[in-house]
Each structure stands twice: as C-alpha cells, then as structure tokens.
Write a structure and sequence with these properties.
Layout (H helix, E strand, L loop, with lengths): L2 E5 L2 E4 L4 E8 L7 E7 L6 E7 L5 E3 L7 E6 L4 E6 L8 E8 L3 E3 L3 E6 L1
Amino acid sequence: EVQLQASGGGLVQAGGSLRLSCTASGFTSDDYTIGWFRQAPGKRRLGITCISLSDGATYVDSSVKGRFTISSDIAKNAVNLQMNSLKPADTAMYYCRAESSIVFWGQGTLVTVSS
C-alpha cells in the first residue's frame, strides 16, 4: 500500500521561504502523479501543483506560479515543494496526494505565514 508523509511546514514571515517534502513508500511503478494541495481555514481543499513521476511533467496553478516550485527526488522517493515569497494568503494545511488508478493522501503539514 502506498503511504505518503508530508513534512516541512512551520511558521514563517511574509516574504520568507519554506520547503515541504512528501516522502512516499509502497510504489510499484512510476505511473503516479504527485500533487500538492492546500486547505485554508473554512475553505475548500485546492490543488496547486503536481508532477508526473514517469516523465517529470509539471503543472503549477496561477496562484503560486513564479513562487512555488515542485520537484521530484527519485533516490529519496520524495517530491519537494519549494515555496518562496510567501504571503499570509498562503497560510493553509498542505497535503500531498499520489494519483494513479487510485488516489492516496498524506497527512497535512501546516504552513503559517505571518504579516
């Protein structure tokens, strides 16, 4: 069974940076897309970026484009999210998700950006 572990959240001032990691285990192939989602208090969970493990193709939502970068570290079975120029509006619980024919979610990691 696929298991995902998200880490790296914390408290940071506006303009600062954080690096989230999603460490995965249980993959039997590279036919997965790993996505990062976030859910602010009282809001829906929304996808912000994803990467295909098979070909490295990425998608980045306009809300974070130019500030957030997703990358994969195959040797460490991890997908990282580098978040720069953070804003208070980026405050949310961040989740990683693995999708193939089925979907697996990791637990969230909290990111708080103070003004």
